[in-house]
Amino acid sequence: SNQNYVCNMDLETDGLSPSVVPSSPKEVVSFVSRGASSHQPRIPVFPENGLQQQAEPLLPSSMRSPCENRSGCCSSPQSKPNCPPLSPPMPLPQLLPSVTDARLAGPSDHIDSSVTGVQRFRDTLKVPYKLELKNEPGRTDLKHIVIDGSNVAITHGLKKFFSCRGIAIAVEYFWKLGNRNITVFVPQWRTRRDPNVTEQHFLTQLQELGILSLTPARMVFGERIASHDDRFLLHLADKTGGIIVTNDNFREFVTESLSWREIIT
Question: What span is annotated as the signal peptide, if there is one (predicted)?
């Protein structure tokens, strides 16, 4: 017999052949399944109505309960209440480390040693900086310096902040070289309080010195409408014969005029 099934369907009789018909309808022929103990009750296979009781379908042992997989256990309804309760399923082996283990282990050295751009920029803000422009006569042979304030501030802020200190450093650099004609263009809405705009007092200081020029901007129905700063830069550089300090290529203005094309080139 196959051990993977609950009961062996080969039934042995008590001296009677399975083909023998009982003498009376109420006389019942009983059979005992193999492997069952002698004290278990005899199970009627043929009920009083003479019809054979339909046997339970045979299922693999993996789909039955632990009680039914045990040898000698009968599938009758009378014996099922005697079965022990099913035990809860055993947990699967942990192939991956749990979250608790990761927390106990702590962060790795790679995470601690990594440096972000925001962290570096905040570290530079901890070092005090003061804009000092000495009141000395400059050189008259130098060209007018037109600084793209937005481009310089964003570049100094590592593409994440609008660093007004970067504008102040650029102005101080050209001031020490002897340039006195310096103009910085910044949109007007940059003067408002914004967590991404750092050290706005430099804009106020440059505006008091007449170096900072604010391009017009306004709010209409909650939307910001600002003028194109690049046009102010090119127009002033064309008018004064100056040089623009920026990282922008101004490709969209190359075909507008020959003078602008020469300045961009």
Answer: none
119-137: burial string, b at 16+ Cβ within 10 Å, e else: eebeeeeeeeeebebeeee
Q: Token digits for 106?
A: 């702590």
Number of domains the chain contains: 1
Structural domain includes residue 59: no
CATH of the domain at 197: 3.40.50.11980
Top mean-pLDDT range of 30-34, 203-207, 223-227: 203-207
Q: Is the pTM of this model over 0.70?
A: no
- Average pLDDT of the chain is 75
Per-residue model confidence (pLDDT) at position 172: 96
In a domain, 124, yes or no: no
Residue 90, domain member (yes or no)? no
* d(C-alpha 184, C-alpha 236), whole Å: 11
**What pLDDT, in 10s, does the model give residues 130-152?**
998 999 999 999 999 999 999 99
Q: Structural domain of residue 175, as residue ranges? A: 146-264
- Residue 88 falls inside a structural domain: no
